[in-house]
Write a structure and sequence with these properties.
heterodimer, A: mainly beta, Neuraminidase, 4-stranded antiparallel beta sheet, B: mainly alpha, Four Helix Bundle (Hemerythrin (Met), subunit A), 80% helix
Chain lengths: 339, 291
């Protein structure tokens, strides 16, 4: 009997110690994130703005001659996008709640790199996911805004929906809704001042009426002329091309560079690579072969293709590294984001 | 004298996993055995108290004899239960601490459930409680424990030890399943009904079908929750085939006890239809009811 009591007391003690450790050493969910995220931008002078997490705190850095911290927010916030202002020593970024809810709002900031001052440009009671601007459309900041936030299934995360493209006049400080599409999803916002258009990736579901047709819908790229925002035009891409996600347009080479699934690895996880499609030669080509998650292609003013590679895609915490590719010869090098 | 024999025999029987009937038979047999031995010693010139003491001493250590009896009646059952409970306890602590220090996650609820079910099995094995319907209690514990440990497999493993933990956890769940089969089919009173091959077949078949239906129900539940945006009120319908399976199983056992073998066996065909019923429920009732 004594042995039984001893055993019971032993189990009780070990369990109590575990519970004590549990309360003492557990890390709040919002403080778990560490390291570089996939969010970055490259300025016309080659400076790189990028976001990292430090004990869950979203931190904005700019790599110029050295690396300097530009902004750091509390761990319950996240920085959704960053823009390096062309021709100016300024950075724009947008932040929202890390754990989004129906009451989440977004705040767009402007940081003056010379003085370090962080000014709030505007706030919205909605979720802004991306920012974009083009030097040819002076003072026009474009952004993607989701008006609702809900989960379509109790075990799936809630997600922003009903997307539209909006603009903000940096000089007049006025906002304007450009489209009225209320799309389920929109990503990879690009602006072309020359074409006076914005480009986005979204579902090609205009002709989808039944559930099966919606399920078969592919992700495609659309041009939205600023003069006729209610008439999006689908960019040509061969019909048999699979879903494409992030993209960048390279007008000088008549190229569309896009992210798509290239296959699966031995664990069955999708591998995402960057591909290009040339509208003149009508040739599609795979650009990256890193067998991980190539994302956020971006064309620098130096004519090189910048992109992020997540080496722990579908893992618990991403491991992003920035790469730069010469589009002429395909030579690729890693861009160090640490000193 | 008889009182001390009864006390001694109770200690012996305490170590076994017998049913109430087996326990009564064993108790009677062992007490008579001790009384006979006592009479023999008395015949050899020992007084009553000395003869009783010698009879019990010659019988052996009560605990040891009880365990030997248990092993003879239910080979390795105790060892299997001890392996399951101690293994589960250690694994529960190891997974909890690994999750805490590698991931920063504190799954206290899961820890408590794991410790509670593991230690209940451990203590019930080390010190069986005679007043309990031990097989029903143990089987219930094993089913709950199996689910708790299977839930451990769903924790977000992303550490260098994840493969080891997942493998050990799977082995624990499999051992729990084996013990459920064993407790239901073999570790039962040796009655005419229980010894019949047909009865064993019915248990094997129904338990396998129960596992299949449980996995199927959980799969459809998961699929529904992933894709549906509405219509959760229809979810209870997914559990109808499982409930029906339980009722048919119980009816079969009652029929067997009443000697209605043919009708009991014919219900096997009904059980065989249950996965089809589950699938039809999913297609027509549940999936059709969701938007």
């Amino acid at each position: 009997m004594k042995r039984m009591i001893g055993l019971a007391v032993g189990i009780l003690i070990v369990t109590s110690v575990c519970i004590f450790f549990g309360f003492t050493f557990q890390v709040p969910e919002e403080e778990k994130q560490q390291g570089v995220t996939g969010i970055f931008d490259v300025s016309d002078t080659g400076d790189i703005g990028f976001v990292t997490y430090e004990d869950g705190k979203p931190t904005l850095y700019v790599k110029s001659n050295g690396i300097r911290q530009v902004a750091q927010l509390p761990p319950n916030q996240e920085i959704s996008d960053v823009i390096m202002m062309p021709g100016q020593k300024k950075v724009l970024y947008v932040n929202s709640d890390k754990t989004l809810s129906e009451t989440s709002k977004s705040i767009v900031h402007e940081v003056d790199l010379s003085t370090g001052s962080d000014e709030v440009l505007f706030e919205k009671d909605a979720i802004i996911t991306e920012l974009a601007l083009d030097v040819a459309l002076e003072n026009q900041l474009f952004y993607l805004q989701a008006d609702i936030y809900l989960n379509y299934s109790p075990v799936a995360s809630a997600y922003p929906h009903e997307f539209d493209v909006h603009s903000y006049d940096l000089k007049e400080k006025t906002q304007k809704q450009l489209t009225d599409l209320k799309k389920y999803n929109m990503t990879s916002l690009q602006v072309s001042g020359k074409e006076k258009s914005v480009y986005i990736q979204m579902d090609d579901d205009a002709d989808a009426n039944t559930a099966e047709e919606v399920f078969e819908t592919k992700q495609r790229i659309f041009q939205i002329p600023l003069a006729q925002p209610d008439q999006p035009k689908k960019l040509f891409i061969p019909k048999d091309t699979e879903d494409l996600y992030d993209f960048v347009l390279v007008p000088a080479h008549s190229l569309l560079i896009y992210q798509a699934v290239s296959g699966t690895n031995s664990k069955g996880t999708y591998e995402y690579e960057l591909f290009s499609y040339n509208w003149e030669t009508k040739e599609a080509k795979q650009l990256t072969f890193q067998k991980n998650y190539a994302a956020r292609p971006l064309l620098g003013d130096d004519g090189q293709l910048y992109y992020m590679m997540d080496y722990n895609f579908a893992g618990r915490s991403p491991e992003y590294e920035l790469f730069r590719m010469n589009l002429e010869d395909g030579e690729t090098e890693q861009v160090q984001l640490t000193e | 004298m008889k009182h001390s024999f009864e006390r001694f025999v109770k200690k012996v029987i305490q170590e076994t996993d017998c049913s109430r009937e087996e326990r009564e038979d064993l108790f009677e047999e062992l007490v008579i055995h001790l009384e006979c031995a006592c009479e023999d010693f008395k015949g050899n010139g020992y007084n009553e108290e000395e003869a009783a003491q010698l009879a019990m001493r010659n019988f052996g250590d009560g605990k040891y004899v009880g365990r030997t009896l248990q092993h003879a009646m239910y080979p390795f059952r105790r060892e299997m239960l001890l392996t399951l409970s101690i293994g589960s306890l250690i694994l529960t602590y190891a997974i909890f601490l690994s999750q805490l220090f590698v991931m920063g996650d504190s799954h206290i609820g899961w820890l408590l459930l794991g410790v509670l079910t593991s230690s209940s099995i451990l203590f019930l094995t080390l010190r069986p409680v005679a007043s309990l319907n031990r097989r029903a209690v143990m089987n219930t514990l094993l089913v709950v424990h199996g689910f708790v440990m299977a839930a451990g497999l769903l924790l977000d493993f992303d550490s260098p030890y994840s493969m080891i933990f997942a493998t050990l956890d799977t082995l624990i769940v499999l051992l729990a399943v084996v013990l459920i089969f064993r407790t239901t089919i073999y570790d039962v009173p040796a009655t005419e009904v229980n010894l019949r091959t047909g009865t064993k077949f019915i248990h094997y078949f129904n338990l396998s079908m129960g596992i299949l239906l449980t996995l199927g129900t959980l799969f459809f539940l998961y699929a529904f929750l992933i894709f549906a945006s509405d219509g959760y009120w229809v979810l209870w319908k997914l559990f109808v085939p499982l409930a029906f399976w339980g009722i048919v199983y119980a009816v079969q056992l009652i029929l067997l006890n009443y000697g209605r073998k043919k009708i009991a066996y014919s219900f096997t065909a009904v059980q065989l239809l249950m996965p089809v019923v589950l699938f039809v429920f999913w297609i027509l009732v549940v999936r059709g009811g969701a938007s």
